[in-house]
Amino acid sequence: MRADDYLANPCEASSLPFWKAETVQIPKNIKVIRDDEFNVERCADNDERYFKLIHDMKIVEKTHLSEQFEVVKCGTESYAGHINECYAKEGISTEELKEYKKHRVYDPDLWIAVADKATGQIVATGIAELDTRIGEGILEWIQVSPQYRHKGLGKFVVRELLWRMKDKASFAVVSGKVDSESNPMALYRACGFINPVIWHVITEKNL
């Protein structure tokens, strides 16, 4: 994929951010189909729907935490532990997460952890990446501990990541499961992401 083709419409061009579209090889038994090209009658196998959204970075406002919480520094193991706490079925190991730091899009300033001051417990985390070649910011892992949801922490993490990227990225993208119980698309739309495009990830069981 050429950068110009991707930049013309990042959400429609690929389900993946540009750097992954260049480097990731999709397994033979998996098909990724944009919604406008999807035929349900021909796709009877396992189908999971994902959205992709874009933020034009034209309006990015600084946000603040309530007094109950604070941004803290922590290690990769703590990030992995929190992700696994939030996503029991889609977790990630510490070693897998360490691989993120080897990517050319890694930016240490785009790893955020929020703790409850009273307990020191990590209650929200976010990881973003930055492709400086095309000015693309990529939100990868955004999660809030179940018992701390609906307190504005998700919005804080997303908006803080956008704020940290505002002078480096021309736009930012994010993806997530359409049918997730936590309704992540609503969070991102509330934070200024637009132009939703749905992608179907189909696992063909007979291959």
Describe the fold and architecture:
The chain has 207 residues and is an alpha+beta fold. It is 26% helix and 29% strand. The chain has a single domain, classed as 3-Layer(aba) Sandwich (Aminopeptidase). The protein has an 8-stranded mixed sheet with strand order 1-8-2-7-6-5-4-3, with helices on both faces. The mean pLDDT is 93.
Task: Provide key terms for this protein.
alpha+beta, 26% helix, 8-stranded mixed beta sheet, 207 residues, Aminopeptidase
**Mean pLDDT metric:** 93
CATH architecture: 3-Layer(aba) Sandwich
| Gyration radius, rounded | 17 Å
Proportion of β residues? Answer: 25-35%
- Strand order in space, largest sheet: 1-8-2-7-6-5-4-3
- Total number of β-strand segments? 8
Distance between the termini: 26 Å
The computed structural class is alpha+beta
Q: How many domain units?
A: 1
Q: What would you say about this model in short?
A:
This protein has 207 residues and is an alpha+beta fold.
Topology:
Blueprint: H1 3-8, H2 10-13, H3 18-23, E1 30-34, E2 46-55, E3 69-72, H4 76-86, H5 94-100, E4 111-116, E5 122-131, E6 136-144, H6 153-165, E7 171-177, H7 184-190, E8 194-203
Parallel strand pairs: 6-7
Antiparallel strand pairs: 1-8, 2-7, 2-8, 3-4, 4-5, 5-6
